[in-house]
């Protein structure tokens, strides 16, 4: 950045609007947090409730997947389309996730004694 | 950038973490690093899944028998909440509230320490049962997976504590805003990994 | 901090290089280190070839032969090819995108020093009980029980070096994403930048599995873990999976930048725009993606089953398609062009048939049933040397000639270069072509000798003659490099006259900040566009002349790497290691070992804390200083000055 870049002082109206927006977004984050707690609770409850393992396993994996996407997009702000290079970052994260998935498939299927 | 540039809450940019070239680079850099860390954990996870319950003939330790859900639940709550507190810290950073950032990041560290304490207690308990690192392939895999995550937690705690000490007198400026943001993203990532650990190791372990 | 004014003494120069964060100097460090390790690994190859020259030879013992073959492979791939490619990436990519340096200059230096100390650590094994001897792939069933510390040197050395490579990979990705000059969209980037980006992405995703695999091997050998020990529930195949999940992308990490380099060389010397730019980009990305889907083709004979083998076989064959696209595009670039056969173009013309030959034997091996016959035979050795030497080494040699003017403001001798090319190229084919037949005739790889009268004698002899020729070729190249020190300086832009991309727009010797004003990119081959419009200045600019912000030097990357080096000794001499307990290897007391480990890592962490606690904002070169530097450089060039 050039030396001494000027940062615009926002007008009082803009400033108050921004603060209200920030507070609103923060409340949204808390809502997301509550949903995460709920999902965690459901996962633990499903296991304790003693259903058939082969039914529960995909369910809790799905719940984990949903919570991870929640964390990425809400807590980590991956949903901010105007963040710098947001598209490229999403590409790398999903790419890493896809490669990770192939490891799971491989290690669960082609390793045996 | 001029590190001595004085800001007011009105002139402080909303996205202070990416308001400078260095900030943008750090922002993209930490995300790219997290992508590589994802693959690192995937390798350790995959190894764990292959070696789950595997041990010498006649071994009595199994995931079902060992893991206790109440402890895992408490650890999850602590870490998840610590993720929320770091979101709060970033919210305060947006509002140019240095004290808010420090307070909520400190909360994050405290909750993280709580998590770590429970994890150490759990490990010591297993070792007392005879389920130590060298007991079997299963034990080596378990301790490596959960231990690698724990090591990431330790690194995160040292990182955030270092930032708190470093910036106590300096307050918020465009040089240290990206540092806080990167540490916060890293901390969220550790929580993301934990979601998979409690699901794959503890929940699926207890399911059998 | 003028580029010309202050004259440094020898000590000053040494300190400059030890503390530099300048991508151009780091490139030279990579070039020097890479060449050193290339020579060492080449020497190891020569020793092996001399041993195999005649049947039942006793020039090298079996044990030493195993060490040589392990070190040759490990050094060539990790410590020679990678750093040499990084040298070009560092020197050229920032210039190609119009940047003044990479995104993280400090980390760039750290990446180099970690690589260097990892490499030194690995090579110390020769003097400290023996080098690793389980092959560069170090399969667990063998390496877990290898006596002495050889494998431990392998694990720790590569762990440190690998960390350096991963850091550099992240650096290039971020640089290419964020620091392109205005007007340089992704689809206007030169191919070498594209291949650097894709290769760095492969590094990003492939090095973590290696890190994990090496860590598992480390704890299995040194701390009693049971990952690969089947009696304790472990599985030796896990190592193979982790290693090849890394190992296959690794070869694409090496070959893609080589492809990129040729995509720069060929258009310049065919005097014609690269044919099919978009498909070249697409092919690069597809090769990168598919590179992660094929690793088990190294494991066809391990008993994965027919379904798994079939899937990986088909995926492997699929990679030939985008690779073939690239070959056709290179040929079509040359076709109809005004061809100038300079030394870099010679290497490019030699590359195309050689790499294709290596590629087609690769597709043969992709057929799993055939691979059952070919696996672990000299056919495989022939294949990968054709793609590596025919692909990567030719790119390195050709690019040395091509980019020497930019990197050193000197030229390599064209005449000597032509001689070097032919000696090396003929030697290369002599060495490896006959090895295809040796493999088909049943000669296994990694054998230190063979019985006479099996029909293998002649071809082994010819192969060794070829290897000696390659050695002569390398020596000629080194002589060329040394001669260039005293040769006439270039002192102008666009040495080859037909440069198309941004790096040729700058007058050498380069000022330390590269561009006095960030250029404005108006299309693909941006410098070519300006040349066509008669722009004598080189480029049009995107900003007015102003203060330039540059990073500070630092000794911390060097010290941090020394810290890991010390810690590695602590781990190496751990008294809990299998071999230490068995008595085949030395160890220290627990206190000594832990002191080194904690002390070393502590030094590294202390440096990180120092770095983090300081405010390091770099320094500014004021507008007047920039004008002064440019003026001094212009006068220097006009007077034929040497720098």
Describe the overall structure:
The complex is a heterotrimer of chains A (113), B (208) and C (643). By secondary structure, chain A is mainly alpha-helical. Chain A has three helices and no strands. In chain A, helix 1 packs antiparallel against helix 2. The longest helix of chain A has 37 residues. Chain A starts with 11 loop residues before the first helix and ends with a helix. The mean pLDDT of chain A is 90. With 208 residues, chain B is an all-alpha fold. Helix content of chain B is 75%, strand content 0%. In chain B, helix 3 runs antiparallel to helix 4, helix 4 packs antiparallel against helix 5 and helix 5 runs antiparallel to helix 6. The mean pLDDT of chain B is 95. Helices cover 66% and strands 1% of the residues of chain C. Chain C has a two-stranded antiparallel ribbon. In chain C, helix 7 runs parallel beside helix 9. The relative contact order of chain C is 0.11. At the A-B interface, helix 1, helix 2 and helix 3 of A face helix 1, helix 3 and helix 6 of B.
With strands numbered from the N-terminus, the spatial order across the biggest sheet of chain C is: 1-2
Alpha-carbon distance between the two ends of chain C:
16 Å
Gyration radius of chain B (Cα, Å) is 20 Å
Distance between the termini of chain B: 57 Å
Secondary-structure element pattern of chain C, one letter each: HHHHHHHHHHHHHHHHEHHHEH
Averaged pLDDT of chain C? 96
Shape of chain C: globular
SS elements, strand count of chain C: 2
Helix content of chain B: over 70%
Q: What kind of assembly state do the chains in view correspond to?
A: heterotrimer
* Low-confidence residue ranges of chain C: none
Mean pLDDT of chain B: 95
**Global morphology of chain B:** elongated
Query: Can you write the helix and strand succession of chain B as a string?
Result: HHHHHH
How many helical elements of chain C?
20
Q: Can you tell me the residue ranges of chain B where pLDDT is under 50 for at least 5 consecutive residues?
A: none
């Amino acid at each position: 950045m050039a030396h001494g870049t000027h940062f615009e002082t926002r007008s009082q109206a803009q400033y108050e609007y921004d603060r209200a927006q920030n507070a609103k977004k923060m409340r949204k984050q808390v809502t997301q947090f509550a949903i995460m707690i709920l999902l965690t609770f459901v996962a633990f409850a499903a296991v304790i409730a003693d259903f058939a393992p082969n039914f529960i396993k995909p369910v809790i994996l799905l719940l984990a997947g949903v919570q991870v996407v929640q964390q990425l997009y809400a807590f980590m702000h991956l949903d901010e389309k105007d963040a710098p290079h947001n598209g490229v970052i999403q590409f790398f994260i999903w790419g890493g996730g896809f490669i990770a998935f192939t490891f799971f498939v491989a290690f669960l299927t082609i390793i045996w004694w | 950038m001029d590190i001595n540039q004085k800001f007011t809450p009105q002139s402080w940019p909303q996205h202070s973490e990416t308001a400078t070239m260095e900030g943008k680079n750090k922002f993209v850099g930490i995300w790219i690093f997290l992508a590589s860390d994802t693959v690192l954990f995937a390798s350790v996870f995959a190894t764990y899944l292959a070696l789950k319950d595997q041990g010498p003939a006649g071994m009595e330790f199994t995931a079902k028998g060992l893991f206790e859900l109440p402890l895992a639940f408490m650890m999850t709550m602590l870490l998840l909440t610590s993720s929320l507190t770091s979101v709060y810290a970033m919210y305060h950073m947006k509002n140019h509230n240095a004290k808010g950032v420090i307070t909520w990041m400190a909360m994050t560290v405290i909750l993280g320490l709580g998590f770590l304490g429970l994890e150490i207690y759990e490990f010591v308990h297993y070792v007392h049962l005879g389920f130590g690192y060298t007991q079997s392939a299963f034990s080596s895999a378990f301790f490596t997976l959960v231990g690698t995550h724990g090591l990431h937690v330790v690194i995160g705690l040292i990182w955030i504590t270092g930032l708190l000490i470093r910036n106590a007198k300096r307050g918020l400026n465009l040089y240290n805003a990206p540092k806080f943001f990167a540490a916060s993203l890293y901390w969220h990532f550790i929580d993301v990994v934990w979601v998979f650990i409690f699901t794959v190791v503890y929940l699926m372990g207890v399911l059998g | 901090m003028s580029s010309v004014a202050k004259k440094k003494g020898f000590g000053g120069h040494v300190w400059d290089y030890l503390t530099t964060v300048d991508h151009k100097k780091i490139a030279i460090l990579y070039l020097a280190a890479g060449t050193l390790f290339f020579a060492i690994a080449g020497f190891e190859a020569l020793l092996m070839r001399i041993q195999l020259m005649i049947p039942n030879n006793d020039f090298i013992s079996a044990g030493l032969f195993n060490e040589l073959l392990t070190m040759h492979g490990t050094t060539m791939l990790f410590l020679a090819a990678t750093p040499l490619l990084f040298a070009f990436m560092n020197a050229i990519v920032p210039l190609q995108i119009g940047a003044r340096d990479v995104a993280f200059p400090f980390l760039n230096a750290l990446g180099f020093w970690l690589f260097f100390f990892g490499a030194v650590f690995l090579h110390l094994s020769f003097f400290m009980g023996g080098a690793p001897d389980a092959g560069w792939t170090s399969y667990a069933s063998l390496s877990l029980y290898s006596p002495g510390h050889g494998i431990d040197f392998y694990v720790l050395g590569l762990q440190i070096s690998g960390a350096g490579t991963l850091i550099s990979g992240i650096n290039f990705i971020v640089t290419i994403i964020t620091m392109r000059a205005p007007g340089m969209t992704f689809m206007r980037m030169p191919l070498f930048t594209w291949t650097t980006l894709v290769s760095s992405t492969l590094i990003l995703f492939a090095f973590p599995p290696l890190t994990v695999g090496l860590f598992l091997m480390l704890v299995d050998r040194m701390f009693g873990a049971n990952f690969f020990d089947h009696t304790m529930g472990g599985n030796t195949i896990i190592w193979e999976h982790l290693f090849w999940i890394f190992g296959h992308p690794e070869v694409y990490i090496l070959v893609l930048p080589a492809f990129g380099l040729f995509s720069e060389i060929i258009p310049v010397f065919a005097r014609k725009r690269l044919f099919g730019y978009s498909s070249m980009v697409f092919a690069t990305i597809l090769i990168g993606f598919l590179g992660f889907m094929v690793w088990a083709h190294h494991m066809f004979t391990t008993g994965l089953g027919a379904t798994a083998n079939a899937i990986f076989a088909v995926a492997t064959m699929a990679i030939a398609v985008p690779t073939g696209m690239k070959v056709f595009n290179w040929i079509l670039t040359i076709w109809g062009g005004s061809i100038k056969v300079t030394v870099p173009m010679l290497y490019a013309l030699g590359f195309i048939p050689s790499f294709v030959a290596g590629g087609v034997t690769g597709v043969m091996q992709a057929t799993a049933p055939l691979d059952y016959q070919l696996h672990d035979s000299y056919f495989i050795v022939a294949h990968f040397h054709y793609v590596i030497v025919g692909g990567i080494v030719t790119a390195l040699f050709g690019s040395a000639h091509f980019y020497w003017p930019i990197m050193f403001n000197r030229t390599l001798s064209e005449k000597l270069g032509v001689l070097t090319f032919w000696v090396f190229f003929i030697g290369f084919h002599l060495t490896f072509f006959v090895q295809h037949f040796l493999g088909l005739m049943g000669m296994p790889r990694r054998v230190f000798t063979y019985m006479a009268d099996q029909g293998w004698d002649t071809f082994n002899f010819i192969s060794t003659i070829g290897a000696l020729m390659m050695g002569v070729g390398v020596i000629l190249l080194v002589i060329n490099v040394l001669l260039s020190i005293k040769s006439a300086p270039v002192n102008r832009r666009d040495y080859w006259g037909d440069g198309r991309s941004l790096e040729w727009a700058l007058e050498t010797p380069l000022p330390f900040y590269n561009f006095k004003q960030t250029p404005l990119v108006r299309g693909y081959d941006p410098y070519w566009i300006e040349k066509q419009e008669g722009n004598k200045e080189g480029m049009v600019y995107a900003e007015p002349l102003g203060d330039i912000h540059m990073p500070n030097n630092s000794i911390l990357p060097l010290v941090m790497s020394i810290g890991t080096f010390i810690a590695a000794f602590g781990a190496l001499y751990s008294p809990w290691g299998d071999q230490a307990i068995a008595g085949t290897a030395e160890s220290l007391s627990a206190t000594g070992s832990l002191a080194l480990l904690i002390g070393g890592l502590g030094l590294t962490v202390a440096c990180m804390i120092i770095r983090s606690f300081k405010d390091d904002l770099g320094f500014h070169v004021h507008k007047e200083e920039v004008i002064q530097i440019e003026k001094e450089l212009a006068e220097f060039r006009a007077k034929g000055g040497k720098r």
